[in-house]
Amino acid sequence: MKRKIGILTGGGDCPGLNAVIRGVVKSAIIGRGWEVVGIEDGFDGLLYDRCPRPLGLEDVRGILPRGGTILGTSNRGNPFSYPIEVNGKTVLTDVSDRVVVRVKDLGIDAIVAVGGDGSLKIALELMKRGVPVVGVPKTIDNDLMETDVTFGYNTALETATDALDKLHSTAESHHRIMIMEVMGRYAGWIALESGISGGADVILIPEIPFELKTVCNAIEGRRRRGSKFSIVVAAEGAFPRGGTRVVQKKADETMAIERLGGIGSFVARELTSCLDMDIRVTVLGHLQRGGSPSTFDRCLGSRFGIGAVELIERERYGEMICLKGRAIRSVPIEKAVRKLKLVDPRGQMVTAAKELGINVGRE
Amino acid sequence: MKRKIGILTGGGDCPGLNAVIRGVVKSAIIGRGWEVVGIEDGFDGLLYDRCPRPLGLEDVRGILPRGGTILGTSNRGNPFSYPIEVNGKTVLTDVSDRVVVRVKDLGIDAIVAVGGDGSLKIALELMKRGVPVVGVPKTIDNDLMETDVTFGYNTALETATDALDKLHSTAESHHRIMIMEVMGRYAGWIALESGISGGADVILIPEIPFELKTVCNAIEGRRRRGSKFSIVVAAEGAFPRGGTRVVQKKADETMAIERLGGIGSFVARELTSCLDMDIRVTVLGHLQRGGSPSTFDRCLGSRFGIGAVELIERERYGEMICLKGRAIRSVPIEKAVRKLKLVDPRGQMVTAAKELGINVGRE
Amino acid sequence: MKRKIGILTGGGDCPGLNAVIRGVVKSAIIGRGWEVVGIEDGFDGLLYDRCPRPLGLEDVRGILPRGGTILGTSNRGNPFSYPIEVNGKTVLTDVSDRVVVRVKDLGIDAIVAVGGDGSLKIALELMKRGVPVVGVPKTIDNDLMETDVTFGYNTALETATDALDKLHSTAESHHRIMIMEVMGRYAGWIALESGISGGADVILIPEIPFELKTVCNAIEGRRRRGSKFSIVVAAEGAFPRGGTRVVQKKADETMAIERLGGIGSFVARELTSCLDMDIRVTVLGHLQRGGSPSTFDRCLGSRFGIGAVELIERERYGEMICLKGRAIRSVPIEKAVRKLKLVDPRGQMVTAAKELGINVGRE
Amino acid sequence: MKRKIGILTGGGDCPGLNAVIRGVVKSAIIGRGWEVVGIEDGFDGLLYDRCPRPLGLEDVRGILPRGGTILGTSNRGNPFSYPIEVNGKTVLTDVSDRVVVRVKDLGIDAIVAVGGDGSLKIALELMKRGVPVVGVPKTIDNDLMETDVTFGYNTALETATDALDKLHSTAESHHRIMIMEVMGRYAGWIALESGISGGADVILIPEIPFELKTVCNAIEGRRRRGSKFSIVVAAEGAFPRGGTRVVQKKADETMAIERLGGIGSFVARELTSCLDMDIRVTVLGHLQRGGSPSTFDRCLGSRFGIGAVELIERERYGEMICLKGRAIRSVPIEKAVRKLKLVDPRGQMVTAAKELGINVGRE
Known about the structure:
- The structure is a homotetramer.
- By secondary structure, the first copy, chain A, is α/β, with parallel strands linked by helices.
- Chain A has helices spanning 17-29, 96-105, 117-128, 153-174, 189-197, 212-224, 256-259, 263-274, 295-313, 333-337, 348-355, and strands at 4-9, 35-38, 53-54, 82-86, 89-93, 110-115, 133-137, 176-182, 202-204, 230-235, 278-283, 319-324, 327-332.
- In chain A, the strands form 4 sheets. In chain A, strands 3-2-1-6-7 form a 5-stranded mixed sheet, with helices on both faces. A 4-stranded parallel sheet of chain A has the order 9-10-8-11, with helices on both faces.
- The first copy, chain A, is elongated and about 70 Å long.
- The relative contact order of chain A is 0.17.
- The A-B interface holds A 22-23, 26-27, 30-31, 57, 64-65, 148-149, 154, 157-158, 160-161, 165, 193-194, 196-199, 292, 294-296, 298-299, 302-303, 306, 309, 324-328, 348, 352, 354-357 and B 22-23, 26-27, 30-31, 57, 64-65, 148-149, 154, 157-158, 160-161, 165, 193-194, 196-199, 292, 294-296, 298-299, 302-303, 306, 309, 324-328, 348, 352, 354-357.
- Chains A, B, C, D: Its cofactor is Mg(2+).
- Chains A, B, C, D: ATP binds at residues 12, 76-77, 116-119.
């Protein structure tokens, strides 16, 4: 059966989005002869009579190695709570009806929604109002349930690990403490895994509120044993035991400027009180979202795109594509967005870090 | 209980070996206070009264980002069939008794054998003669059963995908067919996954003997549709339907020179007979084994090393560490070496390639 | 004065070509309001009534980091000796008149010819027939006179040095001799500079015919002093003293397959006769031409493009843009193509290699 | 004549330092049979009876591709103004006599001082007190006179350009202004050259105090012409016309934390007042100093090291090695440290940026 499908990318930028788009377009057109349209700027593209862009094989040529998304994305676009200006004031309004109507008017049979937690929840709500949707999980932080991992995470890890390699030379040459702040508001996956791969000495994650004294002791211990430098990786959402998160808002809702006074600087200030060492902070920031996707993310993104088309073919609406081991599977979106996938403080990864002699903020 | 354990790396070089060694050393010493010795040049290091090298925390400092293995490896060293010179002639001799005795003499309680198919089989045999062994799977080709993936494979994929990115510019600028030969004597995983990630147009793997006519048609079809260039990725063990493998010996048993007349050149010659296009061959060769391990391989290698020490602690000898999903598990070595993990011609990965419009040598 | 200028890229692919094109288009349009057309596939694009492609700011968006050339290139296209089929036979014919007429018909005021030795000579001849031309030097091998260096060379060096880093791990782990063959038919610059930067032990270049005995001794000497591996870099045009070049044709005129039996394999075969060591050969080939240009090449390419437009503005036809120190200058094309810039066997670079203990094929 | 020479690295970390050290050691030992000692932690290593480390060929093995300096560096160590604690207070004291005596006591015939502006001035003063010194220029910012360029700068440019490539994807996908702050307190070379190579839209450098209105107009203009994003590169020492520098202290004298409120954040705040766009800031910071040196810096560093040894051989004390075009030369240190090499606002590089349509803070 010939179909017309739409694809949109929502939420923060993520390496591999173009691989998903290309996967959807190629598998829909080459094998099935379907029609594909690209909805621009996330769910925003379904409002205000904006016209989706027809996507042919030509349009996805050469995009596989490119970061970002050719469809653009949006941070505003929740149609259930959309900022509408009324008498000079911004009022959050439910404009989802317009979306439902617009999809029908455009003759779109089904939508592939590529997004994180937030975007998938919107997709689920639209589904309940009759819009056939399938989901593709996207999160740089790796905090989505029901999938072993998503695209973008591996590229972000490569960027973070490469940065740690770079900081090592300066730390060693100058006998310094280098603190690197990485993404991860609620989940410490990037900090934990890049810290292990980049040879960090201390890793601070939101799931394990840290004790400053312990961190000081760990660094002091290293110095006593002859290592004149230390590398600390801190997830942006890490916070001291008994304290509160420095970053409360979404990274994409607040200006990066505010984040500059984030956890990295906080830890630096606190460490100066207990250590007589030179300290430097690096905030990796948006570099983690950019760049050409790694081979892992290109392959996974492509497979996710193909899988989404297969879900539509089998009319498994409301499902989300996922990775289990080496296999592509699917689960109800509902199960995936119920809660975030956090690091288990007693799980294998944290234990591995400890076995390697890394201080994770405690003991 | 305090233990003295040995670690050796056998078979071909592989990015991540040093991460494993470091993982073993750190987890054995820091948490357990054990003693670790490094056996040099694979099983060779247990012959001829060679002394293993004591490995302390100092010895593994800074090796995480480094390719290769600080312990060296050997291609000869099968103690069950060892080349001994007798009267000027080389005779393959069973010298495994010496190994068994040597391990006892050295007071080694258990050995971590890091290796592929071949090395693990040797480890298993030694096990049967009373040497306590645990295995860590190593294969660049990803052809080992019972583990989702091993370290080294991801780095090799990055190298191959990066090379494909590079060949794309020349292919496009010169309207050429670029053929790239990658590793994979029996299993086509590197060709298949790097081909998908690098945007190849044709992928040839040992598991699907190819039809030249089909390949020609695919390239011709692309030209008709306006694409003046094509990229072909061929696993070194690929061969034409009805033909035989060009590479029969192990890559490490034969000189690379002989391999230069491998499958890449063969396909180039054959394609010139049916296509009037400029063709170039690149043999990626040893570049795939080298370089700093990717973040994925550093983390996985470290976890495998830790896991091996835990296996020894629990006296699970004869077992091999493996990855299932995101978790480290173990299986009997016996199960892992029974046969090679080949690409399933009807499996998800091949189907994905086809969905993306890639020709895989058939249809 | 408003002008209409054409740009073409000739000869082999080279990272930075797109930077030149972008530099020409931006500086011609933004500051001067000129018109730019892109002539496709080198001088071929001026034959057979092919229409150049108008190039606006939109057309050069995003091409700066991309390898290759958006205009394509050609290996055939010498209009003074063009392969024309006459009665089924290919006859080399002077069709330069057509080019001269075509340029006039198209209303092109001046042409920016980006190319190496060959393309610049053609440009010079067209100049003599009344076509206003300015040149931009392009050579991956760095063998063009009158410019300190050209774009593309630095990127090729990065690729070669990175490959040497990779081969080091395998060489060390396996106690092997690794031979890497790099570009450089007549000039050994890539071999020499990447060899110095990549820590090679032996460097073979066309300018210094090598003595095999000397090379053997150097490797033997290393082994005696405890280094169980050696890295050899050989320019494709290197040859033994008293011998002849293995590669006689242009790399772009002959199939890569033939080159596989090149100098790397030759040296490997010869070394096996005097050394009892494992040897492997890697032919870097087209990987050197590909990939995203390095920052050096992007900046230099951009400046060359701008410089070419300034030459046209000042009507300095027949001149070629060049780099002297940190400054962009120009010289008569005639001076640049008179002879190749070869490595001086007594110059600073060869002396530097020797000071570092590298064997360069002699002594 | 056999000599004993010392080498020290002063000031900030810089990729290529190890290449210099290796070049000095290899050329002094292999060809000349000299003795080399490594003075640790800059000039600090000549105080308090610290013993230099003997450097043999073994000690420099494998350091060529490594960032940082195996000798360590120091930010305190000016022996003419050394922080000495007297009665609990830190007093800057001239302790240069100790250095002069120490050098004599150690039997060091000459010292290779690798450093920037500051370290070279110290070297010059020691020279006047009878310590034979030759200089090797080191500056990541490229602000040293009398040499075309120094090692480290190219690697820093690669890091900055790569970061700009990464920010491009996010900027495009999110329709954002991305501001990247790079090194350059007094000289804007890194900002200018990486901005050109990374396709920036605005470049702010200390040499051209910027007008905010102009910058706003440039970005607005882009938006009107359809480009929904803009990339701004700002040297840390850039400042608004009529304003003052935000960064007054040396990057290495002040904590990075303070710098987080640097020029990037300042520009972001100011731009929000005139533009209704999403803005993000990235402070590249220490990442620019780290990492494996590029091929250019490895080769240049090696040649500088060799050149320094040759200067000592010819007893050209008080001279500094430099690069002119492709040749290694030398100049009196005195000439090199007289003033900083700043970007000429009317020079070729700024003009090139303007020709490419980049706003440089004015017009």
